[in-house]
């Protein structure tokens, strides 16, 4: 059994989610942003790097109980984002695995995802010999 401090550390800082639930929500948000449709459990499993559909079911059920998603039972690909989870992403689309990694980095570092992307593109262009004017 986990002690109170260990349990507190296991919780993600945003929305009262465990870190794994947060990753699952990130995968769902990234998939919907990229494909404009709800992910399947297989899509979520690939995004999280797991093979157990029961693990995905547990995570999705937890997100639903906490009010971040809703599902229509009996329908495939029926996950819909709710509230703050449904907020539109900035004006870029990244592959889901990159989006999840970016969100994880920004949660740890406190960086804004848009700033990280701007810096990465500027470094890429600089390496390619292109000059980027400062804003």
TrEMBL record:
<protein>
    <submittedName>
        <fullName>Uncharacterized protein</fullName>
    </submittedName>
</protein>
